[in-house]
């Protein structure tokens, strides 16, 4: 009988979450490098270059790939012959491992987990509790899958109860464009088919733990219906032209993973969950011999990709920029931001709204300033700030008109597209929305030369910071007339690819 010791299990969980915070799975890097070489869209190629360079930087510096270090998820398959040498439950041991990983002083990870989600939403400060699934299986070992799922991709989860005669392919192709780019493509689509609603969801999540092998499948050909679906969806989703970061291009997904399960004769449950460009997960086995030994990728596993601003990139001084300057910027134009940049995201925007409604004075003057939607990782050692990539901008859409009208900001920086109400507000106020690359958080942080909290310190990572930035790369995503590259570019590339008719809406 195998005995799994408490200390070994906790250490393995802690080591694994640290490991996946800064090491991409090698199969993902190789697939992304292949897509980068094949990409024809300059904007998408630039975004992929940033993600690849960021990945190598994180591996070398052992700092998080993304500022959103995720909600911890652990899938356990426990052999029936396993005995636990512990006074803690399995879930308690998992949570202790997560706590140790996220509070590690050498690479402190961002705590994003809130209790009372429908009420006070109070941060637990250590990223616990994890989401734990335990299955008892034959054998005398413990199979462990860990994942750190970012909110941007998790929030794009989709589920449907189809009729048995309905087309899964049609539903996926109709649904993926509605997900926008907040899940930071190029990534992986995980699909669960069958069972019940909750089983399909779990199958979709579990499928994302699989090896990226679509190109191997293309070479050998499909041997069953699930593999046929994977190949069909891989081709057709990429033919949508959404591209890296939603900027239009040849590659939107690097693989489609599918798991299925028997279901009721009247049902066809289908769940779809995307994995983002961070795609943090790993698998290990415990056999009672000690803690898991995790092997880091080799330097040669990373492609020789560099990133630098193109020669036509415009430098912008945020301290002197005017509304007239903003009005001259064109959709898709690349900029390098310099000067002082304020930050703020969900909680800060809500508090600003409440303070303005109550006639209270704000802690900082926003007039003619830019605001960056970000919740950075805490700094360690000599860092000014930890990884500080953008968060999904659409969550701030409902506050956009208020911020533009009441605070006097003239621009925003975030991740992915803006929704219709935000685009209309931007157009009405002659403002601008700039997009930074999601999945390049450590690279972005190197452009931040100074950082201080200037408001709402009690909100932790959601406090208002003032960054001093030097050559921070962004793209004009919505210009002052309301033109959005996230609307135009995918349609352009879908037409270029020519496999799926372009719709008007």
Report on this model:
There is one protein chain. With 505 residues, this protein is an alpha/beta fold. The protein has 3 domains: 1-148 and 281-307, no CATH class; 151-277, 60s Ribosomal Protein L30, Chain: A (2-Layer Sandwich); 314-489, fumarase. It is 32% helix and 24% strand. The protein is built from 15 helices and 19 strands. It has helices at residues 6-22, 26-38, 42-61, 90-102, 151-154, 168-175, 197-207, 214-220, 225-238, 323-328, 346-357, 397-407, 420-429, 441-445, 485-497; strands at 2-5, 71-79, 82-85, 114-115, 122-123, 131-137, 142-149, 158-162, 187-194, 253-261, 268-275, 280-286, 314-317, 334-343, 370-372, 411-414, 432-435, 448-455, 464-478. Strands 14-15-16-17-19 form a 5-stranded mixed β-barrel. Strand 13 (314-317), helix 10 (323-328) and strand 14 form a beta-alpha-beta unit. Helix 11 (346-357) packs across helix 12 (397-407). The longest helix has 20 residues, at 42-61. The protein is globular.
Question: Any chance you could write out the topology, listing elements then pairs?
Answer:
Elements: E1 2-5, H1 6-22, H2 26-38, H3 42-61, E2 71-79, E3 82-85, H4 90-102, E4 114-115, E5 122-123, E6 131-137, E7 142-149, H5 151-154, E8 158-162, H6 168-175, E9 187-194, H7 197-207, H8 214-220, H9 225-238, E10 253-261, E11 268-275, E12 280-286, E13 314-317, H10 323-328, E14 334-343, H11 346-357, E15 370-372, H12 397-407, E16 411-414, H13 420-429, E17 432-435, H14 441-445, E18 448-455, E19 464-478, H15 485-497
Parallel strand pairs: 1-3, 2-6, 9-10, 13-14, 14-15, 15-16, 16-17
Antiparallel strand pairs: 2-7, 4-5, 7-12, 8-11, 9-11, 14-19, 17-19, 18-19
């Amino acid at each position: 009988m195998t005995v799994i010791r408490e200390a070994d299990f906790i250490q393995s969980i802690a080591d694994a979450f640290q490991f996946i915070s800064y090491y991409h799975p090698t199969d993902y890097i190789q697939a992304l490098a292949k897509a980068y070489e094949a990409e024809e869209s300059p904007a998408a190629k630039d975004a992929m270059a940033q993600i690849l360079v960021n990945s190598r930087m994180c591996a070398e510096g052992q700092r998080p790939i993304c500022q959103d270090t995720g909600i911890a998820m652990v899938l356990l398959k426990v052999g029936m012959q396993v005995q636990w040498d512990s006074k803690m439950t399995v879930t308690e041991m998992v949570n202790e491992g997560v706590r140790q990983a996220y509070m590690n002083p050498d690479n402190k990870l961002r705590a994003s987990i809130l209790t009372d989600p429908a009420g006070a939403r109070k941060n637990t400060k250590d990223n616990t509790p994890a989401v734990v699934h335990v299955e008892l299986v034959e054998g005398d070992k413990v199979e462990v899958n860990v994942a750190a799922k970012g909110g941007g991709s998790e929030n794009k989860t989709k589920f449907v109860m189809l009729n048995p005669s309905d087309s899964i392919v049609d539903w996926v192709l109709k649904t993926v464009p509605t997900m926008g780019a907040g899940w930071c493509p190029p990534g992986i689509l995980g699909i669960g088919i069958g069972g019940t609603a909750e089983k399909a969801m779990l199958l979709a999540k579990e499928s994302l733990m699989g090896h990226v092998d679509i190109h191997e499948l293309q070479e050998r050909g499909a041997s069953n219906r699930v593999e046929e679906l994977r190949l069909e969806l891989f081709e057709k989703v990429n033919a949508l032209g959404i591209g890296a970061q939603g900027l239009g291009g040849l590659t939107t997904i690097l693989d489609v993973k599918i798991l299925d399960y028997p279901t009721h004769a009247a049902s066809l449950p289908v769940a779809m969950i995307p994995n983002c460009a961070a795609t943090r997960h790993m698998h290990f086995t415990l056999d009672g011999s000690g803690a898991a030994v995790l092997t880091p990728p080799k330097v040669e596993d990373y492609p020789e990709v560099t990133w630098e601003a193109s020669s036509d990139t415009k430098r912008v001084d945020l301290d002197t920029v005017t509304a007239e300057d903003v009005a001259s910027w064109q959709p898709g134009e690349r900029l390098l931001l310099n000067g002082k940049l304020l930050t703020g995201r969900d909680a800060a925007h809500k508090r600003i709204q409440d303070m303005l409604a109550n006639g209270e004075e704000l802690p900082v003057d926003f007039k003619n300033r830019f605001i960056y939607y970000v919740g950075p990782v805490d700094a360690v050692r000599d860092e000014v700030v930890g990884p500080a990539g953008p968060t999904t901008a659409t969550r701030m859409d409902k506050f956009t008109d208020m911020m533009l009208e009441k605070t006097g900001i003239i621009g925003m920086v975030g991740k992915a597209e803006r929704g219709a109400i935000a685009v209309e507000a931007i157009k009405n106020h002659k403002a601008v929305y700039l997009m930074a690359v999601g999945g390049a958080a450590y690279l972005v942080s190197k452009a931040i030369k100074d950082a201080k909290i200037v408001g709402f310190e009690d909100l932790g990572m959601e406090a208002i910071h003032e960054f001093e930035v030097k050559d921070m790369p962004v793209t004009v995503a919505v210009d002052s007339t309301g033109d959005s590259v996230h609307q135009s570019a995918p349609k352009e590339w879908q037409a270029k690819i020519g496999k799926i008719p372009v719709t008007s809406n």
